[in-house]
Amino acid sequence: MRTIWVLSVVFVMLPPFITGAPIGDDLISYENVQTENGYRFSYETKDGQAREEVGTIDPSTGVLTVTGWYSYQAPDGATYRVDFVADENGYRIVNQPPPVVTQLIPMVVAGAPISNTVLLSLVG
Fold this sequence. Notes:
The chain is α+β, with helices and mostly antiparallel strands. It contains two helices and six strands; from the N terminus they run H-E-E-E-E-E-E-H.
């Protein structure tokens, strides 16, 4: 009886959590399916965002476990993906993308050489 009650609560409470997909003309694909013991949700947008997750309820404990990933395109054109798990122990990132590092390239300016007095003033 407890399992039926937990399943009822989860399926009533779940839709607000899985309606996070973008809406509009930018969608390439969208799926939101209730399965026998949970749900499956995914979407992809024209600008390179994507998300996929599967929620499964353990019938013996009533614990909902969500596994999935999301990806996005950074301004440099690279695509980054983050895998995650959420369960009774909380939300955890399984695979994290490397940080986006902006590389500064010094600009060489042709001109007169810098005097020793100016160089020494920069040192200290």
